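Good morning C.,

I know you're traveling, so I'll keep this short. The sequence:
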Amino acid sequence: MEKEVDGILVAAHELKAPLAVMRQLALSLPEMDFGGEHIRSEMVSVSERAIKQVNDLTKIRRLDDGLFKMEPVAVREVCDAVSRELEYLFKYNRRDLNVRYSNRARLVTANRDLLYSVIYNFLLNAMHYSGDETRAELVVKDFRDAVKIIVRDFGPTLPIDVWREMKRGWVEKPTSIAMRPGSSGLGLFIASRFSRYMNAEVGAVRHRDGTSLYVTLPISKQASLFSV
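The tokens, ready to paste straight into the viewer:
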């Protein structure tokens, strides 16, 4: 299994250069009419999202090196940053994103870059698989002695085998997801690996009208000291 994953990582690394070239070519095109500018914008956006996932895949190889420091992270700030980055994509695809915070604990123990990628991949998944003119929800709340981040979509529910892997907290490899067209399961694979590194619990809930993906992170000891 590890050899298969290694092959995925090698392939991802090889894809980075042509993706960067495609992005640069799109940016270097001469000024165009409105329709042409829209196509250029989409080319840049798609290539940037693909490069981001390639970068995430290369980070997986480096997790064992201990390069990603665990520290107090402001969970709402990370969620706000991801939401801002994906706001245009949601609007372009006629999706709404509702963000709701009810957590009293503001700091969690995590790595900011890895947590950003987990939330990013959850929201990207929700954007792709919610129906036209439907919403996705990002909820942050206290959960026992932790903070839980939930991303809810209203598309086809996760297949039972993928749900079981998420419930276990470990997606073995990117696989196609039935009823969710175009999915390789790549985002869930990345999110599960990063969450495991951060000692965070990751999982999914199947609904009749969609899926909730979640990650639960320990409250930072620094936050606990401030609350005394």
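Safe travels,
E.
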